[in-house]
Protein: SRPBCC family protein
Organism: Aureimonas populi
Amino acid sequence: MAQTMLKTLLRGRRPGYSLDAPFYTSPEIFAADMEAIFERHWIFVGVEPDIPEPGDVMTLDIGRNAILIVRDDEGGVRAFHNVCRHRGARLVHEEKGTVGNLVCRYHTWTYNLEGALIHAEHMGEGFDRGCHGLKPVHLRSLEGLIFICLAQEPPADFDQMAAAMGPYIAPHNIRDAKVAYSHDLIEPGNWKLTMENNRECYHCGANHPELTVPLFAYGFGFAPEDLDEMEREQARRYGCLVDDSHGDWERAGIPSRMLEHLDDMVTGYRTERLPLDGDGESHTMDTRAACRLPMGPFPSARMGGLHFWTQPNSWHHFMGDHAVTFAVIPLDENRSLVRTKWLVHKDAVEGVDYDLENLISVWMATNAQDSELVGFCQEGARTAGYEPGPYSPHTEMLVEKFCNWYVGRMRAHFDPAPVAAAVAA
């Protein structure tokens, strides 16, 4: 019955409108999301500076999956299911730590940092340790951004995305950075509402006084017919500023122009480097750099802000002085974990090279504001009066692309025959 309902809702989705209420409120559809999206696609989970040295380990849960990510003795980064192969005890219990080997506290089965079982007492002469190593999880690092995939066969187009995005992210030297601060926020809404909220700035002017200090009002869409003559001239000047900035940055070897494949790739993504307002250096309240040490050898402090979005669960902002990464992990149909990390150059010293409050204040405020807004939407979706509403074609076109991607991936998993027939037609 649940799959029949899901297929009906997927087939009946009205383009240009928000999703039907069960997509945000149904525990059955949430379970389907975890199966078809979070257990099948590349999921952003952290950064290499989370585990900077051999033996460093971090853990996370994605639905029913417990994962550990470890840096091995050769400096490589690996992911495994965080489950002992003996009787299923969780191996690593802390969110972060440092180990020599991975030792199960239950019966001391011991695994090296490559996941091989190297010690298991009392198992008899015929026991083959080689058959009982940790179960690996696919992992890829995109210039220091860590993605995992829980599927047996992960989407192959990650390589295509990485080849395009690598030159954009590489100048920011994420692998040579450190995590200055990390913050977890549980938003009171379905993960899709969290992502939809991120994919538009229609709401920014009325709700984000801190964020709109460094960001231009015209950076993420506007309706020309709603502007007066002065505002149209400002929008024209902003367009010229974007074009001129792209030219300057790309002549300096810093890729900047927009790439967008949000709903025409399995591993959907979008990027563009945009100028910042004011002094134009960073996402801070005075728009000046928050960290004295730049992340890379940039030709100027005014490097704008490079945004990078991936489907289904991340967005990122890279400035000349610091970077901010965001991962969304669904908890249930009503709650989502938003994990934010601020990165600076690895040699930067708090209180000397950067003030932590200045570094994090814009996005700490913005995240709290967004969490409240997402909660309002979740509350509304649970009411009898909710029905899908129309997206603005000027300011919510990227929300529509997120929903297109989501519906397409869900149909590919649960309703593939009609999708194939539609493509053939």
Q: What stands out?
A: The chain has a mean pLDDT of 94.
